[in-house]
Amino acid sequence: MITTKYFFLLVLITAGFVFILLYHWFSANVIVGDRLSAVHLSEPENSAARFSGQSSQAGGRLDDLTVYREYDEKFVIIYNRVPKTGSTSFVNLTYDLCKKNAFHVLHINITANMHVLSLPNQLKFVRNITAWDSMKPAFYHGHMAFLDFSKYGMPAKPMYINLIRQPLDRLVSYYYFLRYGDDYRPYLVRHRAGDTMTFDECVAKQKPDCDPTNMWLQIPFFCGHHAECWNPGSSWALEQAKRNLANEYFLVGLTEEMDEFIELLELSLPRLYRGAVSHFQKSNKSHLRRTKSKVEPTPDTVAKIKESTIWQMENELYEFARDQFHFVQHKLRTPGRNVMQEFLYEKIKPNPNVAGKN
Ligand SMILES: *[C@@H]1O[C@H](CO)[C@@H](O)[C@H](O)[C@H]1NC(C)=O
Ligand SMILES: *[C@@H]1O[C@H](CO)[C@@H](O)[C@H](O)[C@H]1NC(C)=O
Ligand SMILES: *[C@@H]1O[C@H](CO)[C@@H](O)[C@H](O)[C@H]1NC(C)=O
Ligand SMILES: *[C@@H]1O[C@H](CO)[C@@H](O)[C@H](O)[C@H]1NC(C)=O
After folding, report:
1. Do residues 175 and 193 touch, judged by C-beta distance below 8 A?
2. Ligand 1 binding pocket includes 209 (Cβ within 6 Å)
3. CA-atom Rg of the chain in angstroms
4. Please, what's the b/e burial string for 199-224 (b: 16 or more CB within 10 A of its CB; e: otherwise)?
5. CA-CA distances (angstroms) from residue 153 to 101, 123, 130, 144, 240?
6. Which of 96, 108, 159, 217 could form a disulfide with 250 if both were Cys (CB 3.0 to 4.6 A apart)?
7. Could you say which of 40, 115, 141, 287 is catalytic?
8. Where in the cell is it found (predicted)?
9. Using alpha carbons only, what angle is made at residue 355 by residues 353 and 358, rounded to the nearest 5 degrees?
């Protein structure tokens, strides 16, 4: 009686073990098999093999689309915003969209508002952003100089975007912002609150707050983390900023043409910016965060500022960015007609349909 009971128990336990072992062996094999076929099919060298078999062709098509969709789902954008370039209204729009379009927005807060990351933090930051899959698709923003991900041995780079503004406008706006704040956070007392000197008076008296050297900000932000970037008047920094703008930035818009910037983003990155144009127009964000009590500088003041090398160099970067932005915008539509540019493939050989029927 007792022995039969034990015997049955033994058989049950053994059967359980065998089942678990078989299950593991099977699932491991199936997963490895899947991975192999996925790699195999997404390799362009094997495209000839894909044409020959019907089954692999169907599988291949499904797989291509999955890969394509993955690009959107693993997306990282960095917006290394320059202070006082209208960034608040754009970031506000992105926050409004993130829930509806299902992506994350993260602010990069660096100790004491520093614009350059320390060496250990550069590596940490780059690795963190790259590895943090549960945050993707992600939009990171912060007052941080451009950081070149290719120096840290990462498999993929994020996409950089930015906005750039006429340097004198930015300086004047910043000058009054420090004194009077803005309508976004009117309760906040700013560093120079109580100082009623106008920008014109400041320039006439050659005070440090309106020193053209303060305009040296958009160049270093685009130039990056090199010491020379932060040396006002450096022509190396200007050239580096232009090269980065052309080679490393997906899109750089103009504060003065925010609507067009948002339209281009909605058209090219719909995964994040679907519905952005109508939302932006409806919510009237373009008027958000206006610096209070701003007085336009007199022509004399403007002329004086424009004599400075710093203004001339910053303005050169601005004009470089402006020409690029207008170029991108004009290429959006067919010349002379208000029709979007399209592209298609044709003359595909050997014919995939014929090959599949063999
Ligand atoms: C964006 O700005 C509007 C005011 O124009 C405000 O109501 C809204 O809460 C802001 N959104 C975020 C995410 O800050
Ligand atoms: C950044 O973090 C510090 C420390 O937590 C905080 O005091 C500060 O308000 C933050 N800055 C912004 C812009 O949120
Ligand atoms: C990235 O950093 C954040 C904040 O420190 C942390 O919570 C997160 O787990 C990190 N992610 C990765 C993948 O390292
Ligand atoms: C948008 O803002 C402007 C200027 O503040 C105002 O004249 C206009 O009526 C506003 N439009 C809407 C739809 O709120």
Report:
1. no
2. no
3. 28
4. bbebbeeeeebbbbebbbbbbbbbbb
5. 31, 10, 11, 21, 21
6. 159
7. 141
8. Golgi apparatus membrane
9. 115
* pTM of structure: 0.78
Map out the domains of the chain with their CATH numbers. 65-332 (3.40.50.300)
Condensed to tens digits (0 to 9), the pLDDT of residues 28-81 reads: 544 443 443 333 333 333 343 444 444 444 555 668 888 888 899 999 999 999
> Is 330 a residue of the active site?
no
Segment 132-164, tens digit of pLDDT: 999 999 999 999 999 999 999 988 899 999 999
Query: Which helix (H) or strand (E) segment is 163 a member of?
Result: strand 159-164
**Half-sphere exposure (CA, 13 Å, Cβ side) for 93?**
30
Task: Spell out, as residue ranges, where the chain has pLDDT lower than 50.
Answer: 29-57, 358
How distant, in Å, are the alpha carbons of 106, 125, 171, 221, 224 from that of 238? 29, 26, 18, 11, 11
Instruction: Tell the residue nearest (CA) to atom 12 of ligand 1.
Output: 92
